Amino acid sequence: MKxxxxxxxxxxxPGFDSCGIALNRYLTIEIGVASAKWEVRHEFxxxxxxxxxxxxxxxxxxxxxxxxxxxxxMHSEIPLARGLGSSSSIIVAGIELANQxxxxxxxxxxxxxxxxxxxxxxxxxxxxxxxxFVVASFVDGQVASVQHRFPEVGIVGFIPDQQLxxxxxxxxxxxxxxxxxxxxxxxxxNVMIGAxxxxxxxLAGQMIEQDLFHEKxxxxxxxxxxxxxxxxxxxxxxAAYLSGAGPAVITFLPLExxxxxxDALNKIEYSGAIEVFKINRLGVEVFDNRL
Length: 291
Ligand code: HSE
Fold this sequence. Notes:
The chain has 291 residues and is α+β, with helices and mostly antiparallel strands. The protein folds into two domains: 2-149 and 280-287, 2-Layer Sandwich (Ribosomal Protein S5, domain 2); 154-277, Alpha-Beta Plaits, CATH 3.30.70. Helices cover 34% and strands 27% of the residues. The chain has ten helices and eleven strands. The protein has helices at 55-63, 86-101, 108-119, 125-130, 166-171, 179-197, 201-208, 215-218, 224-234, 258-265, and strands spanning 2-11, 15-34, 39-41, 70-76, 133-139, 142-148, 154-160, 239-242, 249-253, 272-277, 285-287.
């Protein structure tokens, strides 16, 4: 049996800790034979545990402590600590692993709730479970989420070679904001979401770039963001934003502009991978080997 979980890009500017999209890059785990001990055969570096201390197994055991150990093969196209939801993908895979091996019959809603409790915010885990574009909240222990179709647009990611840990990227955020600024920030987020639901990417993009919640505080950690945003404006992009806690930057633009924008992005002075993404519409999927 294989479990496949999509990469995700959270925030979309003002949808901080709330909005995210699923992308067509994947973490795939294959459940091998039952074994005396858990063994996770992965391709990450040796700092990532290969035994029951691995986040995948830890997550699965939280839900089903009596699961029989197995050999698990893990392959990920989602780079670690870049803002593309790598840890969320492992948490969601761990929940699905427990769901399948432990026959828990979890609903999507339950998976999102459990994953959010583990991750602390729903913006990556919710689209990783449900796919497409998800708007979610986690307030006073209650999770609410709504999935909606994201418009067909060009999606170009710039993924710097260097990692940026979420904890480091959250340390620069303020602990408080004024009532007036909170109203302004949330009204920008509201219009952003409404415009996406209305297929109006031009207006959505304007709102994305007016984020007041996090990007300005993080700008010194991600100097390439300003360069990419300025460049994207020359190609009539809708918006460029910090993907999750960064350092990846995602640009939304008309599909026909993708190629020339990628060519231009290749010439900037920062080193990183450039990837063209599509929206993943389905979220976590389970493939039975017998099929
Ligand atoms: N919303 C989170 C952040 C995503 O921006 O810090 C990363 O976990």
